[in-house]
Amino acid sequence: MDIMLPEGDPERTGEKVRVQDPGEHPSVTLFREYLRLKTVQPEPNYDVAVRFLERIAAELGLGCQKVEVFPGRVVTIMTWQGTDPQLRSILLNSHTDVVPVFEEHWTHNPFEAFKDSQGNIYARGAQDMKCVSIQYIEAIRRLKAEGKRFPRTVHMTFVPDEEVGGCKGMELFVKRPEFQALNVGFTLDEGLANPTDAFTVFYGEKCVWWIKVKCEGNPGHGSQFIENTAAEKLNRVITSLLQFRESEKQRLKCDEHLTLGDVTSINMTMLSGGVSFNVVPSELSAAFDIRIPPTVNLQAFEEQLTVWCRAAGEGVTYKFYQKYMDQTVTCTEESDPWWKAFSGACRDMHMTLKCEIFPAATDSRFIRAAGHPALGFSPMNHTPVLLHDHNEYLNEQVFLRGIEIYACLLTSLASVPPLPVEG
Ligand SMILES: CSCC[C@H](NC=O)C(=O)O
Ligand SMILES: [Zn+2]
Ligand SMILES: [Zn+2]
């Protein structure tokens, strides 16, 4: 029986008195309870998540620390001390927020964690990434119950605001003394589901560039053939960028060895300008979301952008709204002790791994930029990729296998022998 007394309004927070379904695995019950907490952007209820995590830390006898990196933005840290705490630690990172929903497109309430007859659990965050948070917790619960101890300390961090770019979350946290004090050796963070029998593991991410191109031109009456209008220039800019988009799309399609992480994607995501049907505007703008693989020379790419803008005419300029420049990737060679521990454990479990570059951006980028190796991995095979989508779900058996996978990974990673640098 699992009863919890809510402190806030249960309708708003998702915190409710709940009774354990006798036929359900307790780890699944805990997962569903976490899914019901409304940590949904743009106004996530983080208090309710922090309370939930504090309760679990107490239950498991883990150290629990809260770091408020920005007003109202708390990172919760749970620590399982190793037998050799001087050694560098294993960091298991996850974010607590989830993206908004279009409720009318969902077959079940996205904050009810409905489970169908096949064991599919429908909820926002089922894949991204409340599953992983609970899998970390349940793997540690299991290992502790078995009386296991490992040389390396294991930390779990539960971070706010990943879904809105991490600037009030992980980006600030990695600069704090509390993060330094974690003495991180190796990190696991989120990945993506894989519909096949294989598991995808991400060793790097694309750089996000968000640009707005502004085109200035001659204004005038809408009945005239005005020369050098903003629209003609914007048309050239859009054509150049979308032509490049098409060539990258074809390159991906024609080479079976390439994944989305290996090519540059461009999407025009916003258009703005104009005042009236019969006024030729003096200014029009287009916004582009560009994702660049770590193998691309960023300086050369920016030069190309400049060339396209110059070729579109006078008065065409662009401004960055995001310009991520760090292209650090994590080593996946057998000679690397962390990779050897990770991939060796996967091999022991007869798992097939597919190594890729993450097509979007996660908090791993701040960890890698801070100099720590990180792999993006969510143990969800035989599962369609539904993050940020309607009817996001995860099957309970896949979820439960993930706990076993983490228990095995953690056993291996937290036992990596002292590295030369650790003396
Ligand atoms: C520049 S921060 C954006 C982060 C966001 N992450 C998840 O979707 C993304 O669009 O990839
Ligand atoms: Zn995520
Ligand atoms: Zn996400």
TrEMBL record:
InterPro entries assigned: Aminoacylase-1_M20A (IPR052083), ArgE/DapE_CS (IPR001261), Bact_exopeptidase_dim_dom (IPR036264), N-acyl_aa_amidohydrolase (IPR010159), Peptidase_M20 (IPR002933), Peptidase_M20_dimer (IPR011650)
Record has Membrane as a keyword: no
Example of a GO biological process term: amino acid metabolic process
Coiled-coil ranges per UniProt: none
Entry protein name: N-acyl-aliphatic-L-amino acid amidohydrolase
MF annotations from Gene Ontology: aminoacylase activity; metal ion binding
Residue span, Peptidase M20 dimerisation domain: 203-313
Keyword Zinc: yes
Positions of region (Disordered): 1-22
Location(s) in or outside the cell: Cytoplasm
Binding site for Zn(2+) 1: H95, D128, E190
PANTHER family in alphabetical order: AMINOACYLASE-1
Biased composition (Basic and acidic residues): 9-22
Keywords: Cytoplasm, Hydrolase, Metal-binding, Zinc
Family, per entry: Belongs to the peptidase M20A family.
Binding annotation for Zn(2+) 2: D128, E163, H388
Location of the active site: D97, E162
Cofactor note: Binds 2 Zn(2+) ions per subunit.
Cofactor(s) this protein requires: Zn(2+)
EC number per UniProt: 3.5.1.14
A GO-annotated cellular component: cytoplasm
Pfam families linked to this entry: M20_dimer, Peptidase_M20
